[in-house]
Design brief:
The chain is α+β, with helices and mostly antiparallel strands and 1306 residues long. The chain is built from 34 helices and 48 strands. The longest helix is centred in the middle third of the chain and has 38 residues, at 677-714. It is elongated and about 150 Å long. Keywords: Guanine-nucleotide releasing factor, Phosphoprotein.
């Protein structure tokens, strides 16, 4: 059984399993002491399976005889959880016995360290201060656990074997070490001397981790009845299994030590004559020197063993113990520069050997040798000792996570040369060996005769090595980065007493502050590293944030903190370098801070203003993402996090800058006159203060952005009325917020005046009502449709103050009521006996479909003035931004040709042939002649005008027709179609605009394509390769359609005399068109558009999709889904206006009040519902990727992808006169899976007309401004924010040179 324990080497004969137990019938009633000993061992052997000590393999080494390791179990925490004990090795109340559990090895270790007596013990003629013997350890442990044995097992015993095994377990876990590092198992005697590592100094700090294990014989039984009458039903109860083994008491046999290697001391090899001539002190001196040389050789052998047994073994292992990519890093982390130490000590040993050879048999001087070695050690030992904690942790982590490596370490511990020491013991050797030098040299110095010059060398060497130990302690402090015991270090702990006592009070204060600056920088850099390792890396590697949001979330929350870490890591490295070079008295660190402040300015200028955004995104994710919340809660339990939240860590850079200012100012105050810091520190302070001032504006802007996001998250919309205000746009700003009063719309309201919370963004004005939820979150319920600033006008901001009315019902109900139906007229004051507060009108007008005049009131004139100022600023800025970012620009076709009589002239006006009035413009179409001229035809009430596209003065009337409502151009056939007074005519374009030289068709007679005046509208398009003209005639409630196809041969042949018969008559008729199809629709039709393979008819039923080959049709949107009943009802009551493809398999249906996305089957395709127009659509047009909705007062332009409003063009009596159909324009492409690209055709596809305001109310004529909407392009392509004015100029396309430049959109 003992052989199954890793590293167990008992050296005892196997115990016979047939030995009788004390309770067996065969046991003697009066056993002999030897028999009792056998019985005890047999019982312990049988209980070994339950009580076995599971040693950490990384600590495998020597163990005691008789297999008594079975009293331990390593898993303290599991034991503590089972018995309700909260395991905490760092418990500050451990001196109080109420909180001590002696079944836990860590608690025994703490009490041992507190109680054991430390004295100066001599071994090998060398005195060791603060040391103790093996007997001291066992006696102290026995004293600690004896009472627990009595309580737990109901016995009193002097048996020290349990205490001995506890001591050996502590030795195996390097809680203390033997001063000569002999590797022997601890014995209950005075032969060996032990010390705690930290008691010897030399840069070794107090252990961060205590030994762990469970002493099972000291554990309490979980049975509540245990102890009653000495009986217990529990199978695992220690009372029943072990108590009998200690009754009656036995005498522990003397320990039989393993034979030691015979070693020769210095006197053994010296001639007796020489030896007798030497004084006793010199003999002791030479003995110690000889022992130093011997131990140095043993130390170098141990370092050689580390290389041959461990480093080479790890590198050459097959299969690999460590992943090849991590192998070099692992070896550097665990072994550090231990091979450099070996070279240093080899040179020291060589020098001592040479000195021994030169001065044998009596070495006269040895101090100079160590003085020279100390100078060489300064380059190697501080680095190793300072790195030791990192090496120890890396080794521990690898042993716990890598079973193959753990097995390798166990095998190495059983190697004959390892002396049963494990890898952790070996890598501790350099630190322990460095501690021994001052002790050994002091022993030599003590025996050195007065006047011997070596005494001075020895004193210098001792001081040099102790300074080396001080530097090693400093390196440990720097490397640990405030982890473990070094976190509590202050300046006094690192500076020797003799140095501190020689400083002035002011200089001591100055050194304190410099140390605080360095330590604070270490803590700051450590926190940035925690941010990386505990938070950022898991977020990147785990499925915590959705992949599509991961990069954005990391950029928002962590931003450029990595840059800050790089800058401050460099600053800390420079501070540490100065600290090492100038320790213990640092002259200045100002140069390092000054240089860092110059370099990190840009990084902090970017990070600090972004902090409010990072904090908001973090809180938002915690609130909305359960996976992130779970990860976040787990991260807070990480020991390095110290229960501080993520917000603390991302906020760290901000207070750190302020801390620099405070600490540098304090250093300056404590700096003596004439010191260079008196000039340098103020310069560094100015740079840091300037950085703090420069970030103020950015912080305010970020806070405003976060506030804007909070409003966006807390806006509550009525069902189906949500408006995409683009509040999450990077450039969006919140201009102003505040409360205004509004009278109830109905004139009577029991609750009194309404208090509105008004939000003014840079693109919308939103009226809301505040409501606080049960969770304390303020929600903003949208009270009215948000008002685009382009459609906002200010009214009544100069009216006199009024008195708030309390209403007619106040006296009836006892509360504040009012019955005012609207704002007071003519500034009349409303008096009410109980309420005399003044209110100040500030009415606004919303020009949208659901808008009107909103009568609002401010509670003070200052508030009203502020609102007016903010509104005017926002509207002005919005106008500038829209002008710079417009997606369409107006290009004039005519401003002086088309006139209508004004209201003043209408009563006296009579239409005559020489009248300058043309009537209302109704239609237009661009085209090109055979000789390449770009022309435009414009139809109005008095005929058709044709002129050059960009020359408004070239307009000439070519057709004297009345009531022209529609025109189109079949450019491939040279035919111009006109619908006038419900009659459809076809003209050869040569007859209207002769080319040069004139064509034979210039005299062709026009053709009338219908009979009576009954054509309501017509549409021209291409279907399956055919050019078709479809016109509609109304017959009752039905719509009758005729489909015509142009006949090329007939169009180009010579004119014939008119036929007397036929359905279509003209004065000179030829068959230019043939009838292709006739069909009808049993509902009123408004328009018809050509799709890819079918046609879509807008009618009272909705959108009728028809196939002309078989006249099969279907109506969309589908009306069968009862869940869409409300939407269906609204669609039935609205007028369909247009249908445009928004995606590869999606369409946007445009009604007069809203838009609806449907799939190819006609079902609603988006959960967002409808897109509500700002105005009432009288006509819609499509220029990919934008939909244009024409209201009489403005044109609203929306992106078809999400329906977002991108531009508004204000005007009076605005009408669309050409929507891209009926001309030889480039066919629209089909959008891809990602929708329409933003770099679509720059060809103009839309004409419109609006009333031109000249500001003269007495004018007799109203000018109609005819224009085309031209897509804008970016002159210098590049990313541009939509919320701020661009620095480059944008021009409409006018020449082919811009043909391949993508349209720049908002």
């Amino acid at each position: 059984m003992a052989s199954s324990i890793p590293g167990l080497n008992t050296g005892a004969a196997p115990l016979s399993p047939q030995l009788p137990t004390p309770h067996s019938p065969s046991s003697s009633p009066e056993p002999s002491p030897r028999r009792e000993q056998d019985i005890l061992e047999e019982r312990l052997y049988q209980a070994k399976g339950r009580l076995e000590l599971h040693h950490d393999p990384s600590r495998a080494g020597g163990s005691g005889a008789n297999g008594l390791d079975a009293y331990f179990d390593q898993d303290e925490e599991a034991y503590g959880e089972e018995f309700g004990y909260d395991f905490d090795p760092d418990d500050e109340d451990e001196d109080d016995d109420r909180f001590v559990n002696l079944a836990l090895l860590s608690h025994v270790a703490v009490k041992l360290k507190d109680k054991i007596k430390r004295e100066t013990h001599v071994k090998g003629s060398i005195p060791y201060p603060r040391a103790f013997t093996g007997k001291d350890i066992v006696s102290t442990i026995q004293q600690i656990i004896q009472r627990e044995l009595l309580i737990n097992l109901n016995i009193s015993t002097n048996d020290r074997r349990v205490a001995l095994q506890v001591a050996r377990s502590l030795q195996n876990q390097l809680f203390f070490y033997e001063v000569e590092w002999g590797g022997r198992a601890l014995v209950d005697g005075v032969e060996d001397v032990y010390m705690f590592l930290e008691d010897a100094g030399g840069g070794i700090v107090e252990r961060e981790e205590l030994p762990t294990g469970v002493i099972t014989v000291l554990t309490h039984c979980y049975s509540p009845s245990c102890g009653e009458d000495g009986q217990c039903y529990s199978y695992g109860c220690m009372r029943g299994k072990i108590s009998g083994a200690f009754d009656p008491p036995v005498t522990t046999p003397p320990e039989v030590e393993a034979p030691r290697e015979t070693k020769r001391d210095w006197p053994d090899g010296i001639d007796s004559t020489v030896l007798s001539s030497l004084p006793e002190s010199e003999i002791k001196r030479q003995t110690i020197i000889h022992k130093i040389i011997t131990k140095e050789k043993q130390y170098i052998d141990d370092l050689d063993l580390i290389e041959t047994l461990f480093i080479r073994g790890i590198r050459e292992a097959n299969p690999p113990l460590i992943p090849p990519a991590e192998l070099d890093e692992f070896i550097d982390d665990v072994f550090g520069n231990i091979l450099d130490l070996r070279e240093c000590n080899r040179r020291l040993l060589e020098v001592m050997r040479v000195r021994e050879r030169e001065q044998a048999p009596i070495i006269q001087r040895i101090g100079d040798v160590f003085l020279g070695a100390a100078a060489e050690f300064r380059l190697a030992y501080p680095n190793y000792v300072g790195h030791f904690q990192v090496a120890e942790k890396r080794l521990k982590d690898e042993l716990e996570s890598n079973p193959e490596f753990r097995l390798f370490v166990e095998q190495c511990a059983r190697h004959p040369d390892s002396r049963r020491l494990d890898l952790k013991s070996f890598i501790s050797r350099p630190a322990e060996h460095l501690q021994r030098y001052p002790v050994l040299l002091e022993a030599i110095q003590k025996e050195t005769a007065e006047g011997n010059p070596d005494a001075d060398f020895l004193g210098e060497a001792i001081q040099a090595i102790r300074r080396l130990s001080t530097v090693a302690q400093l390196m440990t402090f720097q490397t640990a980065m405030l982890r473990g015991p070094t976190a509590k270090y202050e300046w006094e702990d690192l500076v020797p007493e003799d140095v501190r006592s020689g400083m002035s009070k002011k200089e001591t204060k100055r050194q304190h502050i410099i140390f605080e600056l360095i330590k604070g920088e270490m803590e700051y850099v450590k926190d940035l590293e925690i941010l990386e390792h505990v938070f950022l890396q898991p977020i990147r590697s785990r499925d915590i944030i959705p992949v599509d949001r991961l990069d954005t979330f990391i950029a928002d929350v962590f931003h450029n903190f990595a840059e800050l870490h790089a800058h401050n890591r460099r600053l800390l490295d420079r501070m540490h370098e100065v600290q090492r070079e100038e320790h213990p008295v640092i002259r200045s660190v100002c140069a390092a801070v000054f240089d860092a402040a110059l370099n990190w300015r840009d990084a902090y200028m970017e990070y600090i203003p972004h902090y409010p955004i990072a904090e908001y995104r973090m809180k938002e994710e915690i609130q909305n993402n359960p996976a992130f919340k779970e990860f976040y809660d787990q991260a807070l339990r990480h020991p390095d996090v110290r229960r501080l939240d993520l917000g603390f860590f991302i906020n760290r850079p901000i207070p750190r800058l302020l801390r620099y200012d405070l600490l540098l100012t304090a250093i300056l105050d404590a700096t003596p006159e004439g010191h260079e810091d008196k000039e340098n520190i103020p310069q560094a302070l100015e740079i840091i203060a300037g950085l703090a001032r420069a970030t103020d504006a950015g912080i305010a802007s970020a806070k405003q952005k976060v506030e804007l996001w909070k409003y966006n998250a807390n806006l509550v919309w009525r069902p189906g009325e949500e408006v995409d205000m683009d509040l999450l746009d990077e450039t969006r700003t919140l201009v102003h917020t505040g409360k205004l009063l509004r009278q109830p719309d109905g004139g009577l309201e029991w609750s009194g005046w309404s208090e509105l919370f008004v939000l003014l963004f840079d693109n919308y004005l939103v009226l809301t009502k505040e409501k606080v939820t049960k969770d304390g979150v303020t929600k903003y319920h949208v009270n009215r449709r948000p008002i685009p600033l382009e459609l906002l006008s200010l009214l009544g901001f100069t009216e006199v103050a009024q008195q708030r009315s309390t209403g007619l019902l106040r006296g009836l109900r006892g509360g504040e009521r009012h019955a005012d139906a609207g704002p007071p007229m003519n500034g009349q004051n409303l008096e009410a006996p109980g309420d005399s507060r003044s209110i100040f009108p500030c009415s606004i007008h919303h020009a949208g479909r659901v808008g009107g005049i909103y009568h609002l009131f401010a509670e003070s004139s200052q508030q009203r003035a502020e609102w007016k100022q903010k509104l005017e600023e926002a509207m002005g800025l919005r106008a500038v931004v829209q002008e710079a970012n417009k997606v369409f620009e107006i290009e004039t076709l005519s401003t002086d040709t088309f006139l209508t009589p004004s209201m003043q002239a209408a009563s006296t006006f009579s239409w005559s042939g020489d009248s300058p009035f043309t009537g209302k413009v109704t239609c237009s179409v661009p085209f090109s002649t055979a000789d390449g001229r770009g022309l435009v035809a414009i139809g109005c009430a008095e005929g058709v005008w044709i002129g050059l596209r960009h020359d408004s003065k070239s307009m000439r009337r070519v057709l004297h027709l009345k009531m022209v409502t529609q025109c189109a151009m079949l450019e491939d056939f040279g035919i111009f179609l006109v619908l006038a007074d419900k009659s459809l005519f076809a003209y050869h374009i040569e007859a209207l605009v002769p080319s040069n030289p004139p064509s034979a068709n210039s005299t062709r007679t026009p053709q009338k394509l219908n009979g009576t005046k009954d054509v309501q509208f017509f549409s021209v398009g291409t279907l399956n390769g055919r050019t078709l003209i479809i016109y509609m005639k109304k017959k009752g409630l039905d719509s009758v359609f005729r489909v015509l196809e142009p006949v090329t041969g007939k169009i180009t042949e010579k004119a014939k005399h008119p036929s007397a018969f036929g359905r279509f008559m003209s004065t000179s008729r030829s068959e230019w068109f043939r009838v292709y199809r006739d069909f009808f629709l049993p509902s009123e039709a408004f328009d018809l558009i050509f799709l890819k393979a079918k046609i879509a008819i807008m009618c009272t039923k909705g959108f009728e999709i028809m196939d002309l080959t078989d006249f099969k049709s279907s109506t969309i949107p589908q009306r069968d889904d009862p869940r869409q009943a409300a939407l269906t009802k609204r669609c039935e009551s609205s007028r369909p206006m247009g249908m445009f493809r928004s995606g590869e398999n999606e369409f946007l249906l445009c009604y007069d009040e809203f838009g609806l996305y449907v799939d190819r089957h006609g079902d609603p395709s988006r959960s967002s519902g409808t897109i509500e127009w700002e105005g009432t659509a009288e006509r819609v047009a499509f220029h990919p990727p934008y939909v244009l909705i024409f209201d009489q007062r403005f044109v609203e332009i929306r992106h078809i992808d999400k329906g977002k409003l991108v531009q508004i063009i204000r005007g009076a009596e605005v009408r669309c006169i050409w929507d891209g159909r009926g001309a030889s324009t480039t066919p629209l492409a089909t959008p891809g899976p990602a929708g329409w690209a933003d770099n679509n055709s720059q060809e103009c596809r839309i004409h419109a007309v609006m009333k031109l305001e000249d500001g003269n109310p007495q004018a007799k004529a109203v000018v109609q401004h005819v224009f085309e909407l031209v897509p804008t392009i970016q002159l210098y392509p590049g990313p541009m924010s939509s919320g701020s004015p661009p620095t480059s100029t944008y021009f409409p396309q006018q020449r082919d040179v811009f043909a391949n430049v993508s349209a720049w959109r908002m």
